[in-house]
Automatic annotation (TrEMBL):
Keywords: DNA-binding, Transcription, Transcription regulation. Pfam families: HTH_1 (PF00126), LysR_substrate (PF03466). One of its GO terms (cellular component) is cytosol. It comes from Saccharopolyspora shandongensis. InterPro entries: HTH-type_LysR_regulators, LysR_HTH_N, LysR_subst-bd, WH-like_DNA-bd_sf, WH_DNA-bd_sf. Belongs to the LysR transcriptional regulatory family. The keyword Protease does not apply. Residues 3-60 form the HTH lysR-type domain. This is LysR family transcriptional regulator, cyn operon transcriptional activator. SUPFAM superfamilies: Periplasmic binding protein-like II, Winged helix' DNA-binding domain. One of its GO terms (molecular function) is DNA binding. NCBIfam families: PRK11242.1 (NF008416).
Length: 295
């Protein structure tokens, strides 16, 4: 039996769902057809790929090895299709980009706006994700580029530094420290009532590490998982927060206050899968991001 791409997709679907019925529903084929196709694949390879004896279907050791190669083959073929369709003059194309949540508050607007002005024929698919999800999606060839932070990355992820992001304590117009320009000692900052991003954010981890390093307990009054909610809360209450300076520059009602010692800056990086094909659209976005970082 000649091997066809559908056999790879069928095997991976069964492995993902651990169930023939759910896999068949996902593939929009009948369960008997799916079972027959998998048996044909096993016969052609001369090895059992699935263990059907338990309550759920699982890959055998041979099946797990074959599935890894199948995923890689499908990713490479998808990359090959994009390479063939890539238009070097940027008159058309598709670019998949993800970034961690704080960047959607100040970076994606100007970046996407200028990119669309320059290349209106390119469809830009922008997603907001945590950094670990971005890296996993890059490795699975579900994204072309990611914007996140430098540091330890999953094997197979390539990181290129873009710019340093600085952070400050931030208060609203009704806060007693509004208008303060001299640095606020960290011990005093730790006495303020704070509204912070939730633990899902890399920024929150950075803030927690800073206060822990200086042995300061943070009295947290509010936690939120959106930048928009946080800026609205700070604008309308006497709470304080910590945000990247780039965000406060976009909101005239927010007042940044430097801390003493200062919060360490973070390196913002563009992430991609090592050795992945870079389309003309991806290269154009990288060039634009570098130019934006230098302004």
């Amino acid at each position: 039996m000649p091997l066809e791409l559908r056999h790879l997709r069928y095997l991976l679907a069964v492995a993902e769902h651990a169930n023939f019925t759910r896999a068949a529903e996902d593939l929009h084929i009948s369960q008997p057809t799916l079972s027959q196709q998998i048996k044909q694949l096993e016969k052609s390879l001369g090895v059992q790929l699935l263990d059907r004896t338990g309550r759920t279907v699982r890959l055998t050791d041979a099946g797990a090895t074959y599935a890894d190669h199948a995923r890689r083959a499908l990713r490479d073929l998808a990359a090959g299709r994009r390479a063939v369709l890539d238009v070097q003059d940027l008159t058309r194309g598709h670019l998949r980009l993800a970034m961690t949540p704080t960047f959607t508050a100040y970076l994606i607007g100007p970046l996407a706006g200028e990119f669309h002005d320059r290349h209106p024929g390119i469809r830009l698919d922008v997603r907001e994700m945590t950094q670990d999800r971005i890296e996993a999606a890059l490795l699975a060839d579900e994204l072309d580029l990611g914007i996140a932070f430098a540091g330890a990355h999953l094997p197979g992820i390539e990181s290129t530094a873009l710019f340093a992001e600085s952070l400050s304590l931030v208060v609203g117009p009704g806060h007693p420290h509004a208008g303060r320009t001299r640095p606020l000692p960290v011990a005093e900052a730790a006495q303020l009532q704070l509204a912070l991003l939730s633990q899902d954010f890399a920024t929150r981890g950075h803030i927690d590490a800073y206060f822990a390093q200086h042995r300061a307990q943070m009295p947290i009054a509010v936690e939120t998982n959106t930048i928009t909610a946080l800026t609205e809360i700070i604008q309308r209450t006497a709470l304080a927060t910590v945000l990247p300076d780039a965000i406060t520059r976009e909101h005239a009602h927010l007042h940044p206050i430097p801390l003493d010692p200062g919060l360490p800056s973070r390196t913002v990086s563009i992430l991609r899968r090592e050795n992945a094909y870079l389309s003309a659209a991806a290269r154009a976005l990288i060039r634009l991001t570098h130019r934006w970082a230098q302004t």
